Amino acid sequence: MTSARFHHISLSVADLTAQEAWYGRAFGLTHVDERLEMPEAGVRTVVLSDGAGLRVEFVERPGSSPLAHTDPFAATATQTFTHFAVQVLDLDAAFARLTGECRAASVSSPAPGVTEGMRYAYVADPEGNLLELIETTPRD
Questions:
Q1: 113 with 72: CB under 8 angstroms?
Q2: Which of 12, 41, 85, 103 is a good FRET partner for 109, with 20 to 30 A between their CA atoms?
Q3: 10 Å Cβ neighbour count for 75?
Q4: DSSP character for 28?
Q5: DSSP letter at 101?
Q6: What residues have CB less than 8 Å from 42, skipping those under 6 apart?
Q7: What is the pLDDT of residues 30-86, one digit of tens each?
Q8: Are 87 and 94 in contact (CB under 8 A)?
C-alpha cells in the first residue's frame, strides 16, 4: 500500500484575484505557497494555505465555463468535483460569519449528520463552488 495524505484541492475560477481575497477573508488562506503565470496556456494560478494544513489551488483561465450546482445532491449528477469539506470548531458561528460577513450563499443550514456527534452545513462561494462545513464533537 502507498502511504498518502491529502495535499490540496484545485478550483477553476473566473476571477483569481477576487477568489484569492474571498478565501483569505473566509478561511484565513493568506499564505501564498505558489504563484504561477503561464501566458502561453492562458493560465494564472495560486496555491494558498492557512499555515495549519488547509491548502487550495485556484486556477484562472479566460473563457472557462462555470458549472454551478443547486445543492450537494444535484452535484452528483455529473462525474466531477462536487464540493470540498472543511472542519470547523463552531458550525453555527462559521455558517453565520460566512453567510453574513463573507456573503457566501446559504445552500443548507446547519443540521445533524449521520455520524453521532457530527453536524454539517453547505454554503457556496461567490462563484458557486459548494463548500461543506463540518463540526465534530470529540468522543469520550
A1: no
A2: 12
A3: 17
A4: -
A5: T
A6: 61, 62, 63
A7: 999 999 999 998 999 999 999 999 999 999 998 888 877 777 777 777 767 778 899
A8: no
Phi then psi dihedrals of residue 23, to 5 deg: -65, -30
Residue 45: all three cell numbers together = 494560478
Q: Which residue has the cell 499564505?
A: 31
The residue type at 78: T
CA–CA gap between residue 50 and residue 88 (Å, rounded): 13
Between residues 1 and 125, the one the model is more confident about: 125
List of E strands, the chain? 9-13, 31-38, 43-49, 55-60, 84-87, 105-112, 118-124, 130-136
Ordered alpha helix ranges (H), the chain: 16-27, 72-75, 91-99
C-alpha span between 7 and 112 (Å, rounded): 28
Q: Determine the longest span between alpha carbons in the chain, in angstroms.
A: 55
Burial group, residue 28, by CB count within 10 angstroms (0-12, 13-18, 19+): middle
Indicate left, alpha or beta for 128 from its phi (over 0: left) and psi (-120 to 50: alpha): left
Is the pTM for the entire model greater than 0.90? no
What residues does 60 pair with on adjacent strands?
13, 44
Q: Which amino acid is at 56?
A: V
Can you name the residues that pair with 108 across neighbouring β-strands? 122
